[in-house]
TrEMBL record:
<dbReference type="Pfam" id="PF13468">
    <property type="entry name" value="Glyoxalase_3"/>
</dbReference>
<dbReference type="InterPro" id="IPR025870">
    <property type="entry name" value="Glyoxalase-like_dom"/>
</dbReference>
<dbReference type="InterPro" id="IPR029068">
    <property type="entry name" value="Glyas_Bleomycin-R_OHBP_Dase"/>
</dbReference>
<protein>
    <submittedName>
        <fullName>Glyoxalase-like protein</fullName>
    </submittedName>
</protein>
<feature type="domain" description="Glyoxalase-like">
    <location>
        <begin position="2"/>
        <end position="161"/>
    </location>
</feature>
Length: 189
């Protein structure tokens, strides 16, 4: 089951302003302490959401690279997507957390695929923590998620092996999401 899309940016405030001008309302998610990032969220319907993630100006620059290649970006990019899986093996996953603006701490586990190009999703297990879509900004709906990849058949098999589905066509590595908003459609690449 699709959990969320990850739209990474080198400038969170500028990207949020651009998306708002295009009709996509975002709400504050919160900081990822120690990673130097914070996120903004938009609900996409059906328990799914968009995560817009970028550098957090209120945190010092981290000792390691920020996740999702944020430090290398020159423009916002739809970098990957996540599918929800219950009971991820602690030996094969990473524990993470963040604190919402209301003080609630969210805790989850992630497991990343071997291919790091973003077309194959990572898996996420929210355990007993509240799901971020429950308090994300409302009003948007995911219409389509598609991808291109130089090896579409192999990538499709890997995605299906995770229990997910995605239309993957031949081409350079790229994800594409079309989101309906009250102001019209927003396409993220």
């Amino acid at each position: 089951m699709l959990d969320h899309l990850v739209y990474a940016t080198p400038d969170l405030a500028a990207t949020a302003a651009d998306l708002a001008a295009r009709g996509l309302k975002l709400s504050e998610g919160g900081p990822h302490q120690g990673l130097g990032t914070r996120n903004l969220l938009a609900g996409l319907g059906l328990g799914r959401y968009l995560e817009v993630i970028g550098p957090d100006p209120d945190q010092p620059r981290p000792q390691v690279a920020r996740p999702f290649g944020i430090d290398m970006l020159t423009a916002p990019r739809l970098v990957t997507w996540a599918i929800r899986k219950a009971d991820l093996d602690p030996a094969d996953s990473v524990a993470m957390s963040r604190t919402r603006p209301d003080g609630v701490v969210l805790r989850w586990r992630l497991s990343f695929p071997e291919s790091g190009d973003g077309v194959v999703p990572f898996t996420i297990d929210w355990g007993r923590t509240p799901h971020p879509s429950a308090d994300a900004a409302e009003g948007a709906r995911l219409i389509a998620l598609t991808a291109t990849h130089p090896e579409p058949a192999a990538v499709t098999r890997e995605i299906e092996g995770l229990g997910a589905q995605l239309d993957v066509l031949p081409g350079p590595v790229q994800l594409r999401a079309v989101i309906a908003t009250p102001g019209g459609e927003v396409t993220l690449r």
